[in-house]
Structures are given as structure tokens and as C-alpha cells.
TrEMBL record:
Family matches, as InterPro entries: 2-MeCitrate/Citrate_synth_II (IPR011278), Citrate_synth-like_lrg_a-sub (IPR016142), Citrate_synth-like_sm_a-sub (IPR016143), Citrate_synthase (IPR002020), Citrate_synthase_AS (IPR019810), Citrate_synthase_bac-typ (IPR024176), Citrate_synthase_sf (IPR036969)
Protein name in UniProt: Citrate synthase
Pathway: Carbohydrate metabolism; tricarboxylic acid cycle
Keywords: Transferase, Tricarboxylic acid cycle
Active site positions, chain numbering: 259, 313
Gene Ontology CC entries for this record: cytosol
Coiled-coil residues: none
GO biological process: one example: carbohydrate metabolic process
Catalysed reaction equations from the record: oxaloacetate + acetyl-CoA + H2O = citrate + CoA + H(+)
MF annotations from Gene Ontology: citrate synthase activity
Top-level taxon in the UniProt lineage: Bacteria
Length: 377
């Protein structure tokens, strides 16, 4: 008998210097540095550089990298026109998938697969993903698309393009932290999909479009949107415990709770919980946060002993909501952050590339012969 690793769980297929996860102890590091330290001390720009180069930058290297990102934020005019014409009723991830593919049509390096070309394209895509997502959001609401500003940080510029007004420093920093927390997470479904595409020596844009398609699913990138749907369904904090106990009694899935890897607290959720609480206190203890507090306590009391705890999606939705980001754009925001990890993982894997070609155990019929159509029952 051949043992099948369902969902490829526990299967090792490559090596990486970028991200380490110990799900039993709730540890996540990038380049050996705990995620809590990245969130507290760093920026999305710095972490993006670190992932792409597998090292911390010097001040000069970071300044150069940041300048390159700022210089590449503009989208081709034709793409802006296309985004403005997208149907308003499609899911934003559909729009992002199409826009990312369209973007490749205007890149003269699009078909190049050398490491240098992949790196140059990565810088452009990291810079332009935020512009595309903000443009899609504005167009979806029937609002004029806002051009990027080179004088703002990556996080502040996105919020400016999305809302049409400059965010406060605190809002920009909170969003920056959220991007840092989501930038990379090992061999998750979307990163693996990007690598699988790249292993065929396909182009970088095809790799990223593949990753977007994987991220779109509710079991991966769409979970934080589902959490907000759950909060709306609960309605008020006093109904939260009864609602969750009912779900647990019926053995129904609770969105934002549990993780394939973590059998302890997701360290990213601990960081986001603190910031969600901070924002809620500023706003007079928001309704959403009170519901989340009750859900977390109920879940831990009932099934925490089984290693099931809130994950990063549990609190990220409330943070995004407090920043004025529409619920249907939570998954595209995930892509805005994860583009760095996708690009870095593709570049790292293709240095020692091998075409991914898993196998399956055949369970169909044997010793069969073709039956002419007229003789079939």
C-alpha cells in the first residue's frame, strides 16, 4: 500500500532560506527574525527587500529599493482605461487576476525568465499591485481613479489612492504592519502554485496570475472576508457565545479559527489582536471587536485543547474595516502584501529549478477494452 499525503501535508519538495514556521509552538520567522520583531520595527518595503535578497538591507540599499518602488507605481494608461471599464459586479479578485495578466502585455521583459529579469519584474509588480487594487476599488464604486504619489510610503500611498485623501500617520503605520504580517508564509497554497507555474520556466506574470487564482479561494485568501460575514450574522456581542456554541455543536466550520500549520496561537493573530483592540478602544470599543473577543474566548474554552485557535484572518478584517477598506477587498489586500513572498519564492526556487511533477495512485478499472458505441448499453 502507498500512503497518500492528502493535501500534500508533510511533503517536502524544496529548501528555502526565507520563512520558518513551527506550528506546534506558534513560531513564524523571516530570515530567522520573529514576525513580532518585523511588525514592531520594520516596514513592508524593508521586508520585501529582505525576502527578495534573503538578507537585511543596508540603509543605502533600502533607500535605493524604496526609490525604485516609488518610481514604478504608475500603471500604463491603457490598463487604467481597461480597469475603469471592468464590470462593477465581478469579484475584485477576478478583476485583479485580469489586470495582472493585462499588465504583462506592456512589459518588454515579460517573456524573460532570467533571475535578473524576474527581479526587475518583481519590483514593478510589488509597486503596481497596490495601484491596480486601488484603481479597481475606485472604478467599482464609480469614482475617479486616483494616481499614485511618489512622496508617500507604500502603505500610505495605497490608502491615499483608495480613499482619495491622505491617511493619518497612525493609519498608514497600522496598514503597513498588516502588510508585513501577510507578506510571506512559507509554502502556502498560492506560493506553491506560483512555484509550480515557475517550475515549467513560465514567465513571471503567469506565475503571479496563477497565485492570484489560488489565493481567491475562501479556504486561503478569502477567509477574512468570511469572518466579517460571520460578524454581521452574529450582529451583537451578547449573541456571540450562543452563535458559536451552536456552530460547534453542529460541527460547522468557524471562519478565522484553526490553521493547517498552527496548532497553537498564530503569532500574526496576536499582533493584529493588539492593534485591533487599540483601534477599538480609540473608537469606543467597536461592536466587531467585542464580538471577536467573545468568539475567541468561546472557541478556546470549547476546542482550544485540540490545538484550534484564531488565525491571522480572525482579526485582520476588523483592522481593514477600521481603515475604511471595503470587505470585498480584503482578499486583494492579501495579494497586495503576498506579492513580495510570491516573487521571492519564485526567484529562490528557480535558482535550482526542477519541474514539479507529482503522481497519483490509480484507483480506476483495469483490464478493460474499447466497446464500439453501437454496442454500449
Amino acid at each position: 500500500m502507498t500512503e497518500i499525503a492528502k493535501g500534500l501535508e508533510g511533503v517536502l519538495f524544496t529548501e528555502s532560506k526565507l520563512t520558518f514556521i513551527n506550528g506546534t509552538e506558534g513560531i513564524l520567522t523571516h530570515l530567522g527574525i520573529p514576525i513580532q520583531e518585523w511588525a514592531e520595527n520594520s516596514t513592508f518595503e524593508e521586508l520585501s527587500y529582505a525576502l527578495l535578497h534573503a538578507k537585511l538591507p543596508s540603509a543605502a540599499e533600502l533607500a535605493k529599493f524604496d526609490a525604485e518602488l516609488r518610481a514604478n507605481r504608475e500603471l500604463p494608461a491603457k490598463l487604467v482605461e481597461e480597469i475603469a471599464s471592468f464590470p462593477a459586479n465581478v469579484h475584485p479578485m477576478q478583476a485583479l487576476r485580469t489586470a495582472a495578466s493585462y499588465l504583462g502585455l506592456f512589459d518588454p521583459q515579460a517573456e524573460e525568465t532570467s533571475e535578473g529579469a524576474r527581479y526587475a519584474i518583481s519590483i514593478r509588480m510589488i509597486a503596481q499591485f497596490s495601484t491596480m487594487i486601488a484603481a479597481i476599488a475606485r472604478a467599482r464604486r464609480g469614482e475617479a481613479i486616483v494616481a499614485p504619489r511618489a512622496d508617500l510610503t507604500h502603505a500610505a500611498n495605497f490608502l491615499y489612492m483608495l480613499r482619495g485623501e491622505e491617511p493619518t500617520p497612525e493609519q498608514a503605520r497600522l496598514f503597513d504592519i498588516a502588510l508585513v504580517l501577510h507578506a510571506d508564509h512559507g509554502m502556502n497554497a498560492s506560493t506553491f502554485t506560483a512555484i509550480a507555474t515557475s517550475s515549467t520556466l513560465s514567465d513571471m506574470y503567469s506565475c503571479m496570475v496563477s497565485a492570484i487564482g489560488a489565493l481567491k479561494g475562501p479556504l486561503h485568501g478569502g477567509a477574512n472576508e468570511a469572518v466579517m460575514d460571520m460578524l454581521d450574522e452574529v450582529g451583537t456581542p451578547d449573541k456571540a457565545a450562543e452563535y458559536i456554541n451552536g456552530k460547534l455543536d453542529r460541527k460547522e466550520k468557524i471562519m478565522g479559527v484553526g490553521h493547517r500549520v498552527y496548532k497553537n496561537f498564530d503569532p500574526r493573530s496576536r499582533v493584529l489582536r493588539d492593534y485591533a483592540e487599540h483601534v477599538a478602544n480609540q473608537q469606543g470599543k467597536s461592536n466587531y471587536y467585542q464580538i471577536l473577543e467573545t468568539i475567541e474566548k468561546t472557541v478556546i474554552d470549547r476546542i482550544g485543547s485540540k490545538g484550534i485557535y484564531p488565525n491571522v484572518d480572525f482579526y485582520s478584517g476588523t483592522v481593514y474595516s477600521d481603515l475604511g477598506i471595503p470587505k470585498e477587498f480584503f482578499t486583494p489586500i492579501f495579494a497586495l502584501a503576498r506579492i513580495s513572498g510570491w516573487c521571492a519564492s519564485v526567484i529562490e526556487y528557480t535558482r535550482d529549478n526542477r519541474l514539479l511533477r507529482p503522481d497519483a495512485v490509480y484507483t480506476g478499472a483495469t483490464d478493460q477494452h474499447y466497446v464500439d458505441l453501437k454496442d454500449r448499453q
